[in-house]
Amino acid sequence: MIPVITIDGPTASGKGTVAARVAQKLGFHYLDSGALYRLCAYKALKEEIDLADEAHLAKTAQALSPVFEGGKIFLDEEDVTDKIRAEAVGVAASKVAALPRVREALLDVQKRSRRLPGLVADGRDMGSVIFPDAPLKVFLTASAQARAQRRFNQLKEKGIVANIDTLTRDLEERDRRDMQRAVSPLAPAKDAKILDSSNLTIEETVGQVLQWYEALAD
Ligand code: CDP
């Protein structure tokens, strides 16, 4: 069986960075499932598709053919690596992600990323829905305050000015929408290990995940 480590959790919990580093350390592939929802939202915003038009958005999701290359993401030959990280795209992503037909349209591409020698997948439902048989499932959390601060720093690095109160409000609203939706709500899988990273560095968090993974072999 091809090993999978799933890392789910709320926005700005550090999942992406932690998952990418764990994948790198183990030489595994990496699936950033949130990027798929962001790509779909980006295209919807660009083409002015109504964010409640489920049929149209499902078709858009189905037809997506992004290229992941050297840490960059291209959509229809446009470099969208930074553009899809904009907060407006994140908010729209959480709206399109609430639509069951959009989620269904993205099932195959996610499952196909399980390839040898292994996969680290990050998102909201990696452990609960997409890879329920994963041998290691992590649910990464952090306080809203710690997450807003991290998002603030992340945006600042990209030269984007943000307001910490607005960020906190936005992420709480996004958590609420992700947790309350009917399909694949944000919740730890029954057999997930909970990791609170509020007071941990990235290295410490990565170290804990690797330690859990190595312990599986014992
Ligand atoms: O970076 P951040 O954690 O804010 O977001 P992301 O992981 O890029 O995901 C963006 C949005 O896509 C989330 O707010 C979720 O609503 C949605 N998403 C999802 O529903 N299921 C996933 N497996 C991944 C993301």
Give a written overview of the molecule.
This protein has a 5-stranded parallel β-sheet with strand order 2-6-1-7-8. A 3-stranded antiparallel β-sheet has the order 3-4-5, with no helix packed on it. It contains 10 helices and 8 strands. It has 2 domains: 1-28 and 117-218, Rossmann fold, CATH 3.40.50.300; 30-116, Rossmann fold (3-Layer(aba) Sandwich). It is of the alpha/beta class. The longest helix is centred in the last third of the chain and has 17 residues, at 164-180. 39% of the residues are buried. The chain binds cytidine-5'-diphosphate. The site of cytidine-5'-diphosphate has 16 residues, from helix 2, helix 4 and helix 9.
Break the fold down into its secondary structure elements and pairings.
Layout lengths: L3 E5 L6 H12 L2 E4 H14 L7 H10 L3 E3 L2 E4 L2 E2 L7 H10 L3 H6 L1 H5 L7 E5 L2 H5 L5 E6 L2 H14 L6 H17 L12 E4 L5 H16 L1
Parallel strand pairs: 1-6, 1-7, 2-6, 7-8
Antiparallel strand pairs: 3-4, 4-5
Bound molecules: cytidine-5'-diphosphate.
Précis, in short:
With 218 residues, this protein is of the alpha/beta class. The chain has 10 helices and 8 strands. The protein has helices spanning 15-26, 33-46, 54-63, 87-96, 100-105, 107-111, 126-130, 144-157, 164-180, 202-217; strands spanning 4-8, 29-32, 67-69, 72-75, 78-79, 119-123, 136-141, 193-196.
- Which ligands accompany this protein? cytidine-5'-diphosphate
Report the CATH topology name of the largest domain: Rossmann fold
What is the second-level CATH architecture of the largest domain?
3-Layer(aba) Sandwich
The profile of the biggest β sheet is: 5 strands, parallel
Q: How many helix segments?
A: 10
Q: Spans with pLDDT under 50 lasting ≥5 residues?
A: none
The level-1 CATH class of the largest domain = Alpha Beta
Assembly type of the chains comes to single chain
> Class by helix and strand content?
alpha/beta
Helix content: 40-55%
Distance between the termini: 17 Å
Overall tally of structural domains: 2
The portion of residues forming beta strands comes to 15-25%
Q: Specify Rg, calculated over alpha carbons.
A: 17 Å
Q: Tell me, briefly, the overall form.
A: globular
Number of strands: 8
Q: Whole-number average pLDDT?
A: 94
